[in-house]
Design goal:
Layout (H helix, E strand, L loop, with lengths): L30 E5 L1 H10 L11 H15 L2 E2 L9 H12 L7 H8 L3 H12 L3 H18 L4 H7 L5 H12 L3 H9 L4 E5 L2
Helix pairs in contact: 1-2, 4-5, 7-8
Length: 199
């Protein structure tokens, strides 16, 4: 599956190539999963194995445990599909450079010269998301980028157009299941973090 990902800051990367039939329980679509401490150590150990390791050896059992861990790993909801329609790309570019723009969907529809319903249909067709959901996902992605660069929660909230840090934290917690501080603390831990997974 063709895909890409972007990171901010230093990166140590391990790539696992898994035959699609090796584990039917793995996700069927490209996604990001949370890496547990056990999974991290299994990945590091399995990265040292030869490509053609014996199937009846202790190393093969490690690989099976890794596949089991991948199958049950929580999926992180960090997917941000970019629209292909030129009119929607214009909105995406503006909101990416100026995410504090709080224009309503009706105002955006007027700006690009379409009706509000047409805008909704175009966005759903190109991204699979409503306008509000897509904008929130953009805010999540940008906030993670800025927080990883050391910006404060207060600064990120204001840069995204929130009136208070509290309202931003509430949105963040609903979207990702924890506060920004706790989420970033988990990501910066040397034994856990998100990992891109594609089959």
């Amino acid at each position: 599956m063709r895909h890409d990902f972007r990171v901010v800051g230093p990166l140590e990367c391990y790539c696992l190539f898994i035959e699609p039939d090796a584990s039917p329980a793995l996700p069927k679509t490209c996604c990001t999963v949370s890496v547990s401490p056990l999974m991290r150590e299994l990945i590091i150990r399995c990265a040292t194995l030869p490509a053609l390791y014996p199937l009846d050896c202790p190393e093969a059992r490690l690989v099976m445990v890794l596949l089991d861990e991948l199958a049950i790993a929580p999926v992180e909801h960090l997917h941000l599909p970019m629209p292909v329609d030129p009119r929607l790309r214009k909105i995406a570019e503006i909101l990416t450079t100026n995410p504090s723009d709080r224009a309503t969907m009706q105002e955006w529809a007027r700006r690009i010269g379409v009706g509000e319903r047409t805008l909704g249909r175009l966005l759903l067709r190109d991204t699979g998301m409503s306008f509000g959901r897509w904008r929130q996902q953009l805010q999540i992605v940008l906030s993670l980028q800025w927080l990883s660069q050391g910006k404060s929660v207060q600064t990120v909230a204001l840069d995204l157009g929130y009136e208070s840090a509290g309202s931003f934290v509430t949105m963040f917690r609903k979207a990702l299941g924890s506060s920004p501080a706790r989420y970033m603390s988990r990501l910066s831990s040397p034994v856990s973090g998100p990992m891109d997974s594609g089959t």
